[in-house]
Amino acid sequence: MNAPSRKRRGPRNGAHRSAAVYRTLRRAILEQALHPGAKLPEDAIGERLGVSRTVVREALARLAHEGLVELRHNRGASVASPSLEEARDVFEVRRGLERMVVAALAGRLTAAQAAQLEAHVLAEDAVQGRDGPESIRLAGEFHELLAGMTGNALLARLVLEVCSRCSLILANYGRPHSSECAVSEHGRLIGALRAGDAVAAQRLMDEHLDAVVSRAVLAPRPRRDVGDILSDYARSEGLASP
Q: Which of 7, 161, 189, 211 is the most buried (most CB within 10 A)?
């Protein structure tokens, strides 16, 4: 009786560790600690995080599906590096998707949803000027939260993907993140949604995304070793970090 029980626990534990590695890598990418083009060697990541290469490979495959990682035969994995042409396409698609999101939510936002969004904006405000990486992550999560509230699973998944890719684009081409504008813009957007003003909500979303795009400039970024970067994130996921 005991042996089957142990066998059942193994896959769940393996899935849990793969998910933890996925979250670790995704957060490092979205917070722009791992830059576009950075190599993601399975052995180095596995050693740093205390997991097998198989677990790392599963996490990388999931990230590749989201467009955050590129997998190339005989060349391994690396953080995706969108071109400027791809960047323009991504932002154009994002604009259309986010307009759909606010149109769907205007006048239909529940009190609980509004409170959740306002609490998120307070969390964004709390890290202004103190934690650039966290403010980057929170800014993207605000848009993902909005999309999830529509109840449209496909729309939510597409917004998640384009927001992730936009973070990569800004990591490659953008100026350092400034959370002050994002926080105030998010607050005004919530107000328009609560008021049921779809036209104003779409206008505010357009202006917000225009401001994000306006920060895209060619600027080189310093590089760090992948192991050193991941050690900053591993502890929060309960992964090994020597």
A: 189
